[in-house]
Automatic annotation (TrEMBL):
Keyword presence, Transcription: yes
UniProt cross-references to SUPFAM superfamilies, sorted A to Z: Chorismate lyase-like, Winged helix' DNA-binding domain
One annotated GO biological process: negative regulation of DNA-templated transcription
Record-level Gene Ontology MF annotations: DNA binding; DNA-binding transcription factor activity
CDD domains linked: WHTH_GntR
Entry superkingdom: Bacteria
PANTHER family linked: GNTR-FAMILY TRANSCRIPTIONAL REGULATOR (PTHR44846:SF17), MANNOSYL-D-GLYCERATE TRANSPORT/METABOLISM SYSTEM REPRESSOR MNGR-RELATED (PTHR44846)
HTH gntR-type domain residues: 3-71
The protein's name in its UniProt record: GntR family transcriptional regulator
InterPro entries in the cross-refs: Bact_HTH_transcr_reg (IPR050679), Chorismate_lyase_/UTRA_dom_sf (IPR028978), Tscrpt_reg_HTH_GntR (IPR000524), UTRA (IPR011663), WH-like_DNA-bd_sf (IPR036388), WH_DNA-bd_sf (IPR036390)
Record keywords, A-Z: DNA-binding, Transcription, Transcription regulation
Record organism: Pseudomonas fulva
Length: 254
């Protein structure tokens, strides 16, 4: 299976980094070289390297390559985000393990909380996400909501646990994700949530809700992720918009 192949490649690379065959500060072989080394496709190599990224072992640098950052996996999951493309890429890293799938009609309270249309038919895919098959630390619990028109993606999500569900909808139904609205809120884990995540009840957590939209604003999917606070961090870089010289010279009024 494809999952086993990229997991096998990832496991071997993790061991190679731990043994300093690929030392910290050095570069991994290129994608083409790894394809030849393991006899796999570039897609498989990319999935394997994404697992290493999710563990904090490597980073990808444009025009440089894949740099080794640490010998041993880091606990948790860190995202450094500067664009929608980077967000979509990083969200694919943790491996998904589907726990349940349900069909439902959106009740008013649930629709208001998630931004759904009351009375419409939806499905929900509930899952746990771990850093990799070889390192089964559960990073978060998730619930993805989408209209029943996209129900064929349920089988695709089961067949491709490394792929973002919204991305599968985008590819299978020829849609385009143009906007991702993200809302992050702190909370405490309930008893049931703590049990599922192997954490302490009452421990701090982050609830991250993302709405995936097309250019016209139509909602494609909603993803609700719950992360124990010690397993996730989000880093954003904000840049000042360029202003005309005349405007920049005027101090702001408060």
């Amino acid at each position: 299976m494809h999952q086993a192949r990229y997991a096998t490649v990832a496991k071997d690379l993790i061991e190679a980094i731990a043994s300093s065959r690929y030392p910290v500060g050095g570069l991994l072989p290129t994608e083409i070289e790894l394809c030849a080394l393991y006899g796999v496709s570039r897609h498989t190599v990319r999935a394997a390297v994404e697992q290493l990224q999710s563990l904090g072992l490597v980073s990808r640098r444009k025009r440089i390559g894949t740099r080794v950052e640490a010998r041993h996996p880091q606990i948790g999951y860190r995202q450094s985000i500067a664009s929608l493309a980077e967000l979509s890429h990083h969200l694919q890293a943790p491996v998904r393990q589907i726990r349940a799938v349900r069909q439902f009609v959106a009740a008013p309270e649930e629709a208001e909380r998630l931004g759904l249309v009351p009375g419409e038919q939806y499905f929900c895919i509930e899952a746990l996400h771990s850093t990799s098959a070889g390192h089964p630390l559960v990073v978060c619990a998730s619930a993805v909501y989408a209209q029943s028109d996209y129900a064929q993606v349920i089988e695709l999500a089961q067949a491709h646990p490394e792929q973002l569900i919204a991305r599968l909808i985008e590819q299978h139904y020829e849609r385009v994700i143009a906007v991702i609205d993200q809302h992050v809120q702190a909370q405490s884990l309930t008893l049931d949530q703590a049990r599922v995540l192997s954490a302490e009840p009452g421990a701090p957590a982050l609830c991250v809700v993302r709405h995936y939209r097309e250019e016209n604003g139509d909602l494609m999917a909603v993803c609700e992720n719950l992360y124990p606070a010690d397993r996730y961090s989000l880093v954003n870089q904000l840049r000042r918009d360029r202003m005309p010289a005349s405007a920049a010279a005027v101090p702001p009024a408060f």
